[in-house]
Model the fold of this input.
Amino acid sequence: MGQKKLIKFAAIKEYQNVLEYPQDMPGKWASFFQALEKSSTNISLENLAITANSKLPNGHLVQPLVLELACGRGEYAVGLGRMFSDQNFVGLDLKGNRIWKGASIANRDGLKNVGFVRTQIELAPNYFAKDEVDEIWITFPDPQLRLSKAKKRLTHPKFLRLFQQFLKPNGLVHLKTDSPNLFLFTKTVIELFGLTLITATDNLYSTEFMQSEKWDARCAIKTYYEGLNIASSNCIHYIQFKLDKELPLELDEKLKEIIAEFEITETHDSLARNGKQAME
Done:
């Protein structure tokens, strides 16, 4: 492991706004952010209060909690934290050296409503209580283009079922991607399982869409990946939907049959993804 990575790993262990595989966190996020706002010393997770309703023990209202999955450098957690001081944001990723960037910026700018968790996405239900999360953002995840890896796509029903364990009823999921295949796959999942589609566009930054009533100002936040030429040469796709229905397991086989008919090829988006990984 490189010396720079070792330095970053050591740094985040000292950051109050970064938790690595935290134990007993479900239901405590409102208390955590209140402690982060006030504390100048290490926060004792064991002593945090569990919030079972809309108010903290001191009577303060619980602020909405928004989760950025596979957050990388945490551009969305940080960007949203700047935009909405009355909400709390958590970026989740396994790569500590990436989390270091967003956490460092949040510390530098005094963003006490932004935190990070270092862990695998598959373990997310271990850290959030039922109905604790209001919204989920997924920005430029690995599209997993090979059909054999479809279950690794973060909008596969396998993952959506995990998200339902902590996302509020009718909670929103946002996806930004430059992969036409992932965009089409996600639309197929939404249609097959009868989820409520709010917005879908295959050209997010087109003048027509940006001037329409469907435009969401939060989409203007751009990730590091979007700033690279390999991203800007593709159209950016965006989907917003509600995770508001049960996801019957028996429909997974039907989904497999449908996507088997897609033309899955190693196109520009996969090449771009490889280029992105090489640069990190």
